[in-house]
Amino acid sequence: MLHEITLLEKQTKEQKYISLLPQLFALVEGETDVIANLANISAGLKSNFGWWWVGFYLVKGNELVLGPFQGTIACTRIAFELGVCGSSWKQKQTIIVDDVEQFAGHIACSSLSRSEIVIPIIKNEIVIGVLDVDSENLANFDATDKKYLEKLANFIASLF
Asked: By CB count within 10 A, which of 9, 36, 128, 145 is most buried?
């Protein structure tokens, strides 16, 4: 099990993902506690990308319940299909929002969040949670984030 994540500072976004993902996989290798693993993954993402908020919501019944995260205080529960997280759950698809104020039904857990990407975590064709990442900058997420965060979400599904 890896105990420290290192990255070169002057890397492109894609280079950061290529360096970081194997380290995150190694970080949780051998640990069976999902909550501990999600906590370390969220910390690794936030510390290396500097996003405003990074965390997980887990499906419990008909709502998403806040799981491990890094950042400011967050919404505790999100109903199915509400907000970006609930919409990603319903659609079983990644959603990138360049300006959260333009997203109908956006749930403003923090007024400082300006853009967002939400990736569903799917196991056996069922959404079991979502990875939610917020930025204080507009249009901060793109196809590169989608590609690598979906790869991470697929790995996370295997931890459950």
From this structure: 145
